[in-house]
UniProtKB/TrEMBL annotation, chain A:
GO terms assigned for molecular function: metal ion binding; molybdate ion binding; tungstate binding
Residues that hold molybdate according to the record: 64, 171
Protein name according to UniProt: Molybdate ABC transporter substrate-binding protein
Keyword Electron transport annotated: no
Naturally occurring in which organism (per UniProt): Methylocystis hirsuta
Automatic annotation (TrEMBL), chain B:
Annotated Pfam families: BPD_transp_1 (PF00528)
Major localization class: membrane
Keywords from the named record: Cell inner membrane, Cell membrane, Membrane, Molybdenum, Transmembrane, Transmembrane helix, Transport
Listed name of the protein: Molybdenum transport system permease
Job description of the protein: Part of the binding-protein-dependent transport system for molybdenum; probably responsible for the translocation of the substrate across the membrane.
Subcellular location per the Swiss-Prot or TrEMBL entry: Cell inner membrane; Cell membrane
UniProt keyword annotation of Electron transport present: no
Recorded GO CC terms: plasma membrane
InterPro entries in the record: MetI-like, MetI-like_sf, ModB_ABC
NCBIfam families: modB_ABC
Length: 260, 224
């Protein structure tokens, strides 16, 4: 019994001595980001990490709706990059954000396929019986899914293709359905179609922006991230030319500008 | 209040679980019989394969099934050869995936029951000139009844509770692949907590009742 006490005391001592040490050296932030940012942000974060050794930036990707729900439920995210400014505004309004929503990019939606040349496809082709399943992100909580639905409705195709739709949990999963060939085409994000993971697998065609509401993307710093210097440093880094070039490379238009 | 959307998902889930349980009993009983009685070196490897879903994350199963059942996968090519539509995003696809997913929950209780029974009832049957097949149906199966009931309950309940695999290969299509667990997920992600509660609470109650039935019964069951 006595030995157990001694052992526990020893463990406590070790934890107590090491804990402040760790807090002092490492500066860490966790970012929650919409899935369409995956490839662009990966590149930006790895550049940032190279320039800020010792600091740590973790990114968790998911649908914007899911991530904002998690933030409301106390998820430890410091910055939230939403694919839709509406989610960022809602968080701000309900007191979960420390900053006003700041637009960072405008997203575009494309028709993409791994099995046929989507560059030669038009939206109307989706109604063709030769096209089987069409993958979109879940419109209930993924902004790109909502836009995909708007596009199909605006093009007068919704009723014709409704039975062919399958819903990914977020835009990445929708793309993955098409990438494995399980779905013939996906309505996905331009930023994903331009990533090297899928760029050489069949082409894409850009969907006119007139068919859906503008995909204005915005970030907020959450209450938890409010006092973190690293959060601000990272957001400043996002504004640099180097980061902006990456965003443009992945098809994001700067906010306030007409998308290409 | 539950909506028609909810009832559609519940109906789909029950339909899936019923079909899967029925098929699994058909496949599981002979398989368990073989596993319980064989001296073959294959017993170890095959037993391990059957038990895999107990330890594998559903995402692993979902991932490989998506690849295998897709048009470029072996299963997908085979289906295409016979002119059948690919399995992802279909109810049939969910059935196939669930067969893998729930297999150990059905095979293991039956195998345990067969093993607990020992050789003597079959030897007795043999002395009365019962053929092995006859003995299987008239002696082994009735004796293993508690194990079969446990297997059916576990297989059914486990299929009802399936989430990861259907999320990966299902595509959340209403009336076809959007089962209760996926609908709950969608409602929570969309912050429709009230609607999520109806289904989630119901699921909780259902699971509790199933386990209560199982453990309440087990006190008396012999080969459970």
């Amino acid at each position: 019994m006595r030995r157990l006490h001694e052992f526990l005391a020893f463990c406590c001592l070790i934890v107590l001595t090491l804990a402040p040490l760790r807090a002092a050296t490492a500066s860490e932030i966790t970012i929650a980001a919409a899935s369409d940012l995956k490839f662009a942000l990966q590149e930006i974060v790895s550049n940032f990490q190279a320039a800020h050794k010792g600091d740590k930036v973790d990114v968790i990707y998911g649908s914007s709706g899911k991530l904002q729900t998690q933030i409301r439920e106390g998820a430890p995210f410091d910055i939230f990059f939403s694919a839709d400014i509406a989610y960022a505004r809602a968080l701000r309004k309900d007191g979960f954000a420390a900053t006003e929503p700041t637009p960072y990019a405008v997203g575009r939606i494309v028709l993409w396929s791994a099995t046929r040349d989507a560059a030669k496809m038009r939206l109307e082709d989706l109604a063709d019986p030769k096209i089987g399943k069409i993958a979109i992100a879940n419109p209930a909580h993924a902004p790109y899914g909502r836009c995909a639905e708007q596009v199909l409705r605006a093009a007068g195709l919704w009723d014709k293709v409704k039975d062919k739709l399958v819903f990914g949990e977020n835009i990445s999963q929708a793309t993955q359905y098409a990438e494995t060939g399980a779905a013939d085409v996906a309505l996905t994000a331009l930023s994903i179609a331009l990533s090297k993971q899928v760029a050489d697998r069949g082409g894409y065609s850009l969907i006119p922006e007139t068919l859906h509401s503008r995909l204005e993307q915005a970030y907020v710093v959450t209450r938890q991230g409010a006092d973190k210097a690293l959060a601000k440093t990272f957001l400043d880094y996002l504004k640099t030319g180097q980061s902006q070039t990456i965003m443009i490379k992945f098809g994001f238009a700067p906010p306030g500008q007409a998308a290409r | 209040m539950p909506t028609s959307e909810d009832f559609a998902a519940i109906w789909l889930t029950l339909k899936l679980a019923t079909i899967v349980t029925f098929l699994l009993l058909l496949i599981g009983a002979p398989l368990a019989w073989w596993l319980a009685r064989t001296q073959s070196w294959l017993k170890g490897p095959l037993g391990a394969v059957v038990a895999l879903p107990l330890v594998l994350p559903p995402t692993v199963l979902g991932f490989y099934l998506l690849l295998a059942m897709g048009p470029h996968g072996p299963l997908g090519r085979l289906m295409a050869f016979f002119g059948v539509a690919p399995l992802p995003f279909t109810f049939a696809g969910l059935v196939v995936a669930s067969l893998f997913y729930s297999l150990p929950f059905v095979v293991q209780p039956i195998q345990n029951a067969f093993e607990a029974m020992g050789d003597r009832p079959l030897e007795a049957a043999a002395t009365l000139r019962a053929s092995p097949l006859d003995a299987f149906f008239t002696v082994a199966l009735p004796l293993a009844r508690p194990g079969l009931v446990t297997a059916a309950i576990l297989g059914f309940a486990h299929t009802v509770g399936e989430f990861g695999v259907v999320l990966m290969i299902g595509g959340a299509i209403p009336d076809k692949t959007r089962v209760v667990s996926v609908l709950i997920y969608d409602q929570v992600e969309s912050m429709n907590y009230e609607r999520a509660h109806w289904l989630a609470g119901g699921m909780l109650l259902f699971s509790f009742c199933v386990l209560l039935a199982l453990y309440g019964r087990r006190r008396n069951g012999r080969y459970g």
